[in-house]
Amino acid sequence: MSRADQPLHGDQPVTNRRERARLRREEIILIASELFAERGYRGTALADVAARAGITEPGLLHHFGNKAGLLLAVIERRDLDSEAFAMELLGMEPADRLRALPEFARRNRERAGLAKLFTVLVAESLEPDAPGHDHFVARYRALRAIVADTIRSAQEEGLTRAGLDPETKAAEIIATLDGLQTQWLLDPEAVDIVAAVESYARTLERDLTGT
Amino acid sequence: MSRADQPLHGDQPVTNRRERARLRREEIILIASELFAERGYRGTALADVAARAGITEPGLLHHFGNKAGLLLAVIERRDLDSEAFAMELLGMEPADRLRALPEFARRNRERAGLAKLFTVLVAESLEPDAPGHDHFVARYRALRAIVADTIRSAQEEGLTRAGLDPETKAAEIIATLDGLQTQWLLDPEAVDIVAAVESYARTLERDLTGT
DNA sequence: CCTAACTTACTTAGTGCTCGGTAAGTGAGT
DNA sequence: ACTCACTTACCGAGCACTAAGTAAGTTAGG
């Protein structure tokens, strides 16, 4: 009834059919993300994803070609979310970025699935010929570069002591956050991820400023 | 020909048959460790392990009951190695323990398989009903307790500043080492694990002493 | 000391199930 | 007329695991 249901007259190619297919793919990717996080890529059968999505297995493969294609689609989609966060961080003053870390942890805690997805997939991608390997290698290199650049510019502004190597410190920061997340995912009752990250942010501030 | 080939007279029950079986199990565990590290628990078929060990699949199951039994045997065996290292650390003066970290990293670098095994298995054990879950939960709790105790006693001796919470700091230290290891396993060319751990040990010393 | 009974470390053969993937349509949009 | 998002039907391979036997080593009894 409403205009939104119908394609507009003709000023834009509102391809209703393609749009519906795109939404369907998005839905499938979301479902696959959850399952991959819970059982890993190898532990998840296409049939599991298909059943939850209310589609047949060949229907699934029609959209993604094969199982690895589905994995790559999942990774790509989830990277968009992370990229959005990275952009958010880069938009801040360097001094404020540290303070954003606990907020990041808080957000991750509410969506444990996403965190689990990456932890599981990275571990399954350690071998060079794993389907997601190259992607995660590139991802970590980019992440380290972003953090290292942040440190470098903070050094130039005199906010951070000059004695440390930005690349090494970047790897260390990412490692700590990843590692805390893993411990929390394994044993949420024993590890308070938000408190741990808050504490680490303070440690890091002392470390970076040299006070 | 030599006496060693024959059972001794009778003062000890030198059960030749049992001993050979034990050695066989050890050999299988070693092979399974390698495969689990490379392809994960789920990604490894019993047939793969059996083939490399020169035994049939049912022969394998005769020793370990089922696949999960093999996994637990692998974890248990590898924990003995880690425990040996923990004991070594605990035998040192608290002040020397920090200096042992790079040596630990150096050792792990030479045997990347062991490191990879744990990274992969922990990720596969995040879900509470995974076969290794309880084991890794207990392992991390024990590890955190050991490190926290070390910090606590260093505080009592005045070697470490009083203002930090030992439990939280323990989780942070373990997280950093784990996270660095993961980055290195994923991309050995981009991450120098020994240099990174050396740098972190210095960071940590400043952090703990408050200088 | 010899041998019969038992235990143990396997093997061969096979089972039922699940897996990712394909071939060949169908029917509704465009 | 054509495309495209599917479905039904199917496939061969691989999976963990079992049943049943075998041969060698170990132990107990006479």
Automatic annotation (TrEMBL), chains A, B:
An example Gene Ontology molecular-function term: transcription cis-regulatory region binding
Name this polypeptide is given: Helix-turn-helix transcriptional regulator
Domain HTH tetR-type: from-to ranges: 22-82
Species this chain originates from: Nonomuraea montanisoli
Highest taxon above the source species: Bacteria
InterPro entries: BetI_C (IPR039538), Homeodomain-like_sf (IPR009057), HTH-type_TetR-like_transc_reg (IPR050109), HTH_TetR (IPR001647), Tet_transcr_reg_TetR-rel_C_sf (IPR036271)
Keywords annotated in UniProt: DNA-binding, Repressor, Transcription, Transcription regulation
DNA-binding region coordinates: 45-64
Family matches, as PANTHER family: HTH-TYPE TRANSCRIPTIONAL REGULATOR PKSA, HTH-TYPE TRANSCRIPTIONAL REGULATOR RUTR
